[in-house]
Amino acid sequence: MRVVVQRVSSAEVLVQGEVVADVEGGLLLLVGIAESDTNADLEAAAAKIAGLRIFNDDDNKMNRSVVDVGGRILAVSQFTLLADIRRGRRPSFTRAAHPESAAQSFEAFCGLLQSESLEVETGRFGANMEVRLVNDGPVTIVVETVGGRVT
């Protein structure tokens, strides 16, 4: 599993010109589900992301989590995060989970984030989406899991 975590002032997802989800203050998550991912991977990533202290405290030090600041999450499924570009010029996506299982895992991952007391908005799985965001910082972190552990 690979998740690109971006601290944002605002973010929104549009499908065919219509806003389907938006957040003000919080995190934008670009979520890549691998074929080998298990529930343990989903749990590890959700717990790590919920607890990441990447929001500033009163001393302007990154010391608060998205939960601490009452931030919201916008999660967008993005299989292209699992692209293999080692050979040739065309990316291979064979590591990405098949759409049916990826959709179930993505939904489960969002549910795990909600169980961490987070409000979660999502893009539309499988749709061609336009993602707009205003980075805050910028702060961008990549969270990866293998075998149920954050690597």
Describe the structure.
With 151 residues, the protein is α/β, with parallel strands linked by helices. The chain has a single domain, classed as D-tyrosyl-trna(Tyr) Deacylase, Chain: A, CATH 3.50.80. It contains 2 helices and 8 strands; from the N terminus they run E-E-H-E-E-E-H-E-E-E. It has helices at residues 39-51, 99-114; strands at residues 2-15, 18-32, 55-56, 62-64, 72-77, 119-122, 130-146, 149-150. A 6-stranded mixed sheet has the order 6-5-2-1-7-8. The longest helix is centred in the C-terminal third of the chain and has 16 residues, at 99-114. The chain starts with a strand and ends with a strand.
Shape: globular
Oligomer: single chain
Point out poorly predicted stretches: none
SSE pattern, N- to C-terminal:
EEHEEEHEEE
Question: Which architecture name does CATH use?
Answer: 3-Layer(bba) Sandwich
Average pLDDT level? 98
- The helix count comes to 2
Number of domains: 1
Strand order of the largest sheet: 6-5-2-1-7-8
**Through-space gap between termini:** 10 Å
Give me the count of strands. Answer: 8
CATH class: Alpha Beta
What does the radius of gyration come to? 15 Å
Sheet/helix structural class: alpha/beta
Mind telling me the CATH superfamily name?
D-tyrosyl-tRNA(Tyr) deacylase
